[in-house]
Amino acid sequence: MSMMVGFSTSASMVPILFQAACPECRARFELSAGALRLAIGASRRTTFYSFTCPECETAVRKPAGERIVELLTGGGVRTLRLHSTP
Predict the structure, then answer these.
(1) Which positions ≥6 away from 81 have C-beta within 8 Å?
(2) pTM above the 0.85 mark?
(3) How far apart are CA 70 and CA 64, in angstroms?
(4) Fewer CB within 10 Å, N- or C-terminus of the chain?
């Protein structure tokens, strides 16, 4: 996962795009922040991002380390904080 930073022009703001790949069909593509979801859990095991592959429509879920979390939250990806119940 990597991020392509948008920039401001006098006419409009270019959106931030994230480069991703599908483990199923091996396609590589760019996704907007709206196409991604980030879930932050209590551990590394429960922290992940997800998207639907635009090529094969497979639901993809990948682990998200600290750097990925920083990139996605900084890029405006919707974030869900997972809470454990007592």
Answers:
(1) 39, 40
(2) no
(3) 9
(4) C
- In the sheet that holds 28-32, the strands lie side by side as 2-4, 17-21, 28-32
Q: Which of 34, 44, 31, 33 is nearest to 82 (CA)?
A: 44
The sign of the torsion formed by the CA atoms of 33, 39, 40, 43 equals negative
- Bridging pattern class, strands 17-21 and 48-52: unpaired
Longest CA–CA span in the chain (Å) reads 52
Percentage of the residues of the chain whose pLDDT score is greater than 70: 80
pLDDT at residue 15, rounded to an integer: 77
Among candidates 10, 63, 2, 49, which has minimal Cα distance to 29? 2
